[in-house]
Q: What sequence folds into this?
């Protein structure tokens, strides 16, 4: 008898945000500054910070962009294509952490500003899950799957990356462009339909 | 021998815009005012006007929204979900012309402003074509099809309405949310994959 696969995942909408390396925290918020927690977010150990920056590109700025903790080895800015067009930058679609050759952008904090040569990306659509989840969904780490969306602006999101780690909570992350195009509010359960 | 179907359609991105009835032209731009042509657009007989308005909702405004001509019997405002969230209105996804019970919104012109009880929609994804095109694509007026998009943010747009009229030019129209979510620039040819 074939084992029944799990198929449905909850979806969350990631607004624009950034991760910082300590050196950049200090350049933006002052020497010796440490990130302060505002609230927990869906992935265990991750948190929204009280700290916010302004993003600046050749065509404009976006204010009040929240920093997420904990610290990273390399600063990474995640925005949508809509954001990118507004400020005139051209980030590639990438997995988190894959920033080599990605877009440059300027960050402005209360104590200073920095221009990073690379680190600005549009995060790929992805699903966090544990090894146990992966087994039940019959998928593997780094596999790309498709996800079905019902409704008047329904369709299929392709190129959704599976990310497996025993610290992850089951959650699909999409950006605000995907949410708005498919008319999702971020409280839906969506069906994985292909692998 | 089965006849080969045509499959590919050019895509264009529709930014927010509105169509006006004459009574509203006069309320916004002055008694006796007639719309003036700025430039032709892709559908024969349709044109962008020099006239622009400000859209106002409970949470904010969007300035410089262009009027399209010719006049319509009923004023209709077409925005994206991103726009709608910004100004705090909640338009339904609709075919052009189907405005009964759609969202209310306020229009501000240089000579006056009006609040319309209904008429604000998110335009459904649709493909304009002639009867000859429809025959070659083997589709019918009002039929819903799906369209394939390749690339790092690829997938399938569902619920795409076929619109057949002998005055139409072959063109798929999507809004800026769909364009940005699927990373389209508006110069692509996309494949109809299901009916």
A:
């Amino acid at each position: 008898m074939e084992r029944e696969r799990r198929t449905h995942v909850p979806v969350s909408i990631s607004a624009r945000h950034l991760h910082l390396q300590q050196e950049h925290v200090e350049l933006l918020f002052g020497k010796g500054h440490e990130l302060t927690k505002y609230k927990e977010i869906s992935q265990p150990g991750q948190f929204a910070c009280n700290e916010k920056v302004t993003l600046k590109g050749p065509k404009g700025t976006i204010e009040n962009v929240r920093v997420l903790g904990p610290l990273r080895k390399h600063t990474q800015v995640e925005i949508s294509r809509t954001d990118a067009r507004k400020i005139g930058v051209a980030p590639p679609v990438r997995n988190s952490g894959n920033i080599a050759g990605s877009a440059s952008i300027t960050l402005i904090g209360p104590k200073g500003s920095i221009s990073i040569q690379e680190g600005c990306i549009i995060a790929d659509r992805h699903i966090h899950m544990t090894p146990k989840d992966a087994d039940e969904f019959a998928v593997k780490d780094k596999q790309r799957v498709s996800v079905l969306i019902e409704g008047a602006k329904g369709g299929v999101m392709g190129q959704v990356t599976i990310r497996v780690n025993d610290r992850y909570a089951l959650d699909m992350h999409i950006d605000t462009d995907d949410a708005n195009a498919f008319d999702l509010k971020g409280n839906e359960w969506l069906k994985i339909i292909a692998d």
The domain at 8-12+125-194 of chain B is CATH 2.40.40.20 (Barwin-like endoglucanases).
